[in-house]
């Protein structure tokens, strides 16, 4: 069975999932302390899936570490990278560092090897203590397995079961014994433990990310089972003081026409919805109070589309190319979420209105994808009301005691007809600056 969740590079760019410039969604979760943990986290983050068993397994591994978000889990990144290079197979024979070689103690290889053996034991001791804390709360098989495995390795190396004050003391006389144990007999076990340490680091980083913040683990149904996407108290990860909104999309009204004045919050809202859907399908917690959804098979956006000077494409034509890219990726009976922000803003209102109507008409006629189309052309709503399966949503604006508008960033039913362009320009001070120039 194909468990692939469809998403393309433009969508990842639109949502700032793992952007190298500025803030990214990945950065929000990247609280890892090790480079190996960072690699493991990236692997999880870039692997969306429709496999509900895998998603549930990730939920479980994150939840079991929630009680330990304040516990110490610090491991020196450079030391662990050195240990990765150190833990490689060696011949099961005495080397030039053999005991009879009295000159070895002055060699750089001797000191590097001695230091690495001490460091691997220090890492083992610290990780074993952490697992000992976790296992008192959660005795899952993998926790128990690696707790026992780390204890076994420590017993073999230190020849004691009392790890409280244990420390490896390497001398000229026991060097070869420890070297053989660590790099020959226990090599595979130690590499496996290091891999599990990185995995724990990644899952603990995810658990830490929502400390003192509202979050939930989505409840999934099979594809098409409920035909609904419901999110309660959804908010945007990047906002310092976010405003939450309740979202409900259903098969009976699977297409949204979203309107709102400039700066009303349309783009933030639709990005919040898209990010929540993506996080849900990588098994991560979501910034919301609750989320219930059928498993979706894809996510596509058209938000930051520019013209293409090199190819001579206008902004409007590029928007058309983007829509074609999305349509070509959709599978038959797809229930992907498609988000189109300020569609066809690169042309005049008449052309834009006609083009938006045709696109939305298509979405209402095919039984499958959820679609959100945001637009500033509120007048188009009257024509769209002739189509089935459309919800009309707006970002509300209210007035203060002095009659001035202020943004609530709350979604509601209806169409936004407010025009605040000139008010915003006046507020920006641009006309005052023009007047100064005239003087």
Can you characterise this structure?
This protein has 439 residues and is an alpha/beta fold. The protein folds into two domains: 9-209, Orthogonal Bundle (MutS, DNA mismatch repair protein, Chain A, domain 3); 219-438, P-loop containing nucleotide triphosphate hydrolases (Rossmann fold, 3-Layer(aba) Sandwich). It is 44% helix and 13% strand. It has 15 helices and ten strands. The chain has helices at residues 9-14, 25-29, 35-45, 52-63, 77-86, 108-135, 141-158, 175-185, 187-209, 266-280, 315-329, 349-365, 381-384, 421-428, 430-438, and strands at residues 219-221, 228-234, 245-250, 255-259, 290-294, 299-302, 337-340, 370-375, 390-399, 405-413. Strands 6-7-8-4-9-10 form a six-stranded mixed beta sheet, with helices on both faces. It has a four-stranded mixed beta sheet with strand order 1-5-2-3, covered by helices on one side. Helix 11 links the parallel strand 6 (299-302) and strand 7 (337-340). Helix 3 crosses helix 9 (187-209) and helix 5 (77-86) crosses helix 6 (108-135). The protein is elongated and about 90 Å long. The protein starts with 8 loop residues before the first helix and ends with a helix.
């Amino acid at each position: 069975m194909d468990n692939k969740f469809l998403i393309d590079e433009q969508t990842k760019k639109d949502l700032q999932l793992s952007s190298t410039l500025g803030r990214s969604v990945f950065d929000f979760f990247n609280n890892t302390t090790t480079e190996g943990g960072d690699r493991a986290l990236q692997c999880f983050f870039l692997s969306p899936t429709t496999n509900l068993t895998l998603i549930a397994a990730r939920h479980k591994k994150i939840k079991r570490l929630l009680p330990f978000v304040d516990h110490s889990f610090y491991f020196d990144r450079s030391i662990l990278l050195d240990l990765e290079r150190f833990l490689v197979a060696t011949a099961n024979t005495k080397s030039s560092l053999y005991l009879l070689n009295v000159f070895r103690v002055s060699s750089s290889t001797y000191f590097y090897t001695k230091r690495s053996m001490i460091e691997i034991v220090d890492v083992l001791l610290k990780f074993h203590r952490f697992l000992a804390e976790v296992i008192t709360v959660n005795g899952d098989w993998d926790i128990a397995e690696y707790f026992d495995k780390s204890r076994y390795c420590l017993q073999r190396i230190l020849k004691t079961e009392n790890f409280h004050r244990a420390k490896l003391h390497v001398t000229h006389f026991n060097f070869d014994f420890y070297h053989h144990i660590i790099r020959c007999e226990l090599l595979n076990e130690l590499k496996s433990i290091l891999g599990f340490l990185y995995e724990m680091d990644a899952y603990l980083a995810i658990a830490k990310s929502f400390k003192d913040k509202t979050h939930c683990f989505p409840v999934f149904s099979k594809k098409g089972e409920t035909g609904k996407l419901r999110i309660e108290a959804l908010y945007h990860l990047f906002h310092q003081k976010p405003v939450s909104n309740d979202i409900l999309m259903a098969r009976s009204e699977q297409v949204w026409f979203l309107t709102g004045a400039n700066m009303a919050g349309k783009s933030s809202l639709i990005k919040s919805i898209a990010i929540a859907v993506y996080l849900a399908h990588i098994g991560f917690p979501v910034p919301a109070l609750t989320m219930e959804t059928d498993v979706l098979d894809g996510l596509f956006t058209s938000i930051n589309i520019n013209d293409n000077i090199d190819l001579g494409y206008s902004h409007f034509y590029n928007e058309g190319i983007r829509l074609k890219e999305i349509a070509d990726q959709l599978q038959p009976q797809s229930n992907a979420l498609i988000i189109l922000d300020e569609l066809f803003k690169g042309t005049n209102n008449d052309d834009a209105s006609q083009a938006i109507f045709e696109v939305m008409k298509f979405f209402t006629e095919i039984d499958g994808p959820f679609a959100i189309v945001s637009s500033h052309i509120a007048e188009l709503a009257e024509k769209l009301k002739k189509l089935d399966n459309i919800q009309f949503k707006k970002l509300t604006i209210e007035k203060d005691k002095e009659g001035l508008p202020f943004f609530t960033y709350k979604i509601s039913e209806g169409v936004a007809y407010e025009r605040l362009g000139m008010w915003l320009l006046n507020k920006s001070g641009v006309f005052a600056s023009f007047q100064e120039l005239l003087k």
